[in-house]
Structures are given as C-alpha cells and as structure tokens.
Amino acid sequence: MTSHHKLTSVKVLRRQARQHIERGAVTEGYSADRPQVLKMLNEALATEIVCVLRYRLHHFMARGIHSQTVGAEFLVHSNEEQGHADQLAARIVQLGGEPDFSPDSLSERSHAEYVPAKTLPEMIRENLVAERIAIDSYRDMVRVLEDKDPTTSDLLRQILAVEEEHADELADLLEGMPADKD
Ligand SMILES: [Fe+2]
Ligand SMILES: [Fe+2]
Questions:
Q1: Which positions in this protein are listed as binding Fe cation (predicted)?
Q2: Extents of the domains making up the chain
C-alpha cells in the first residue's frame, strides 16, 4: 500500500462507533462540514423540484408537429428529476438533516429557473439552460465533497451523469427544430 493514511485501530473504531449512536450514519470519521453539506444538498433538492415542475409544465403545454415526441421526452426527464429529488432527500435524512420541501422559498433556493416558454424550441432551450446550470453546480459539489464525503460525492456524480445525458438529448432535439418555430 502506498497510502500515507494510517488506519484507525480496531479498538478506537469500536469505541467511536459506540459514541453518539443516535447520529446513525454520521460517525466520528465524518470530516465534511455537515451544515454546509446539508445546505448544498437542499439547494440541489430545490433545483430538482423546480426542474420537475418546469418539465411537467412543458410536457402539458407542448404544441406543434413535434410536440408528441418532444413532450414525451419532457415527461421522462421530469420523472427522472423527481427520482433525483428523492435520492437527495434520502441522503439529507441520512446525514441527520431535514429535506426542505417548502414551496414558498423553492425558486429562491433553486439554481435553475422556472421559465414557462411559449414555443417548443423555446422550451427545449430553457430546459437545456437549466440542465447546464445543474451540470456545473453538481460538478462543483462533487469536487468539494470528493475526499470528505465520498458517498454524497458519488451520489452527486451519478446524478450529474444523468443531467449530462439530458443536456445531450435536448441539444439533439434543438438541432432538429426550425429556429423559433414550433
Ligand atoms: Fe436531475
Ligand atoms: Fe436533468
């Protein structure tokens, strides 16, 4: 082994595990700034919920010749964003926090915006912008948490991969659209 980290002795591991057992998965070895991680995850949760709502609005409001295919894709994305929101909420609870589902402050806490948009190309563009915001903020979070909270970092990395797929699909859809027409 080339690692310079010293392993904690079994005796110490056993003693530490018995302390503060009410904290569940949050052990002595958890070295990230927990309140900061919880705040970060709640912002990500708000972002996902806003994306669920925006995609759903666009799904129902899609009109025009391509509305069947593109509208169906919006619904698929909406449901996947809901899945992300659920994963984030579960992790927040695991870390001893409370997921913030409060509708009043949702759009303030979200990184991405809720933009109605009129035409199909406008909708695709708005969703693509939101995905690109999510991609950059998840990439930042993964980097910040990589060493100190690898579990959360891995979760965010998985979500990031899906957001990249979403962005790629939207960019493809946009290419097939006549500019500013539905
Ligand atoms: Fe998402
Ligand atoms: Fe997405």
A1: 48, 84, 131, 163, 166
A2: 32-175
50 token code pair: 């806003």
The gap from C-alpha 150 to its chain's centroid, in whole angstroms, comes to 16
The pair of structure tokens assigned to 175 is 């290419």
Give me the tens of pLDDT residue by residue for the chain, a chain 182 residues long: 455 678 889 898 889 888 988 898 888 889 899 999 999 999 999 999 999 999 999 999 999 888 999 999 999 999 999 999 999 999 999 999 999 999 999 999 999 999 989 999 999 999 999 999 999 999 999 999 999 999 999 999 999 999 999 999 999 999 988 765 44
Any idea which fold 32-175 has? Ferritin (1.20.1260)
* Cβ proximity of 124 and 61 under 8 Å: no
Cα–ligand 2 centroid distance for 177 (angstroms)? 20
